[in-house]
Amino acid sequence: MTPETPITQDVMTLPRKLPDGPVNLIGLTRDELREALLQAGTPEKQAKMRTNQIWQWLYQKGVRQFDEMTNLAKDYRTLLAEHFVIALPEVVSRHVSEDGTRKYLVRIAGDHEVEVVYIPEEGRGTLCVSSQVGCTLTCSFCHTGTQKLVRNLTAGEIVGQVMLARDDLGEWPKPGHQPNEQTRLLSNIVLMGMGEPLYNFDNVRDAMRIVMDPEGICLGRRRITLSTSGVVPEIARTAEEIGCLLAVSFHATTDEVRDKLVPINKRWNIEELLAALKTYPKISNSERITFEYVMLKGVNDSDEDAHRLVKLIKGIPAKINLIPFNEWPGAPYQRSDWKRIKAFADIIYRAGYASPIRTPRGEDIMAACGQLKSATERERKSRKTIEAEAGLT
Length: 393
Ligand code: SAH
Ligand code: SF4
Fold this sequence. Notes:
It is a single chain. By secondary structure, this protein is of the alpha/beta class. 34% of the residues lie in helices and 17% in strands. It is built from 11 helices and 13 strands. A 9-stranded mixed β-sheet has the order 3-4-5-6-9-10-11-12-13, sandwiched between helices. Strands 1-2 form a two-stranded parallel sheet. It has a two-stranded antiparallel sheet with strand order 7-8. It starts with 22 loop residues before the first strand and ends with a helix. The structure holds S-adenosyl-L-homocysteine and iron/sulfur cluster (SF4). Iron/sulfur cluster binds next to loops.
């Protein structure tokens, strides 16, 4: 890597336990929860049972008050309330698109904001979760990448996004009812919001383990898709330690073009990326890798590109998800014409790969892929305007 390559991972990660103030239970792993309970004075002999009980209250039933944990003695509930809090990111605003897509702007510690998008579909619903505030990578077509401020989200802030969406959807099971995999409103998760999840690996892993826990939110690992721009050294770990489905932001078929679109390619090029992807399905025992490919007019959308793409991915069980470019103010690219996208998709399809074209969802509320930053700024601006109008500034 040359010194001028603008790739950095030195972002702030908050410690799990802030030095002062009570510990937030949300986002602790089972072991950490057990440890925290012991520290608070839970007798060693009871620790395992208490951990399980509290875990179920938090993640299976969605309870937020210690007083509602009715299978715990009153004294013990008081003790918990003295030492701990149950805190989720705060929903600052909620927009619902004409197509039913919901976008939440949520505030996390340090007065940062991230966006979470819920996309209802026939028979399922997908939550698009953020893993960082902003992103240190600078993909030239992505608005999130132009945001300067970056910090890693904690595991609690990541799983908290799932929990607040379930709150809004009214989806915590009623007492006595088990969650039904077939009828869940929030049935899938994609780590495709703001940030590069593999630059915040530990927090993403811990949050997804809570999401997958059978005594927790209980979503199967194949209902989670993690999208990476290509952080090659973390790909095998993703298979081993999370085991979810993988999507990769491929976007180009030559290193020359990919260096420009996805600059992390300068560190790990197409060849190295493909080598890592080849091992993924075996380690994670999952079927196909999704290759995301943003369609940029005149940049990466020729027939030659499509043929090259097919050649490159030979031998990797794959699906190619074509994403019509979503414009944002000042974006240096245009969306490929519909006819071009179709022709590109056909070449891939004829080579034997599924090549769905991703329908932009929630465009009217700026919730589509790659648009997430601008909405935040708009929100900030409008709040400022409101404050000014109210004579607060
Ligand atoms: N950082 C991760 C995940 C977040 S981005 C990654 O890059 O994979 C989720 C997807 O949206 C990626 O495939 C990304 O390349 C794509 N994307 C970003 N900006 C876009 C835009 N303006 N239009 C369409 N897709 C975009
Ligand atoms: Fe970051 Fe992904 Fe956007 Fe690239 S596409 S800048 S990796 S969020």
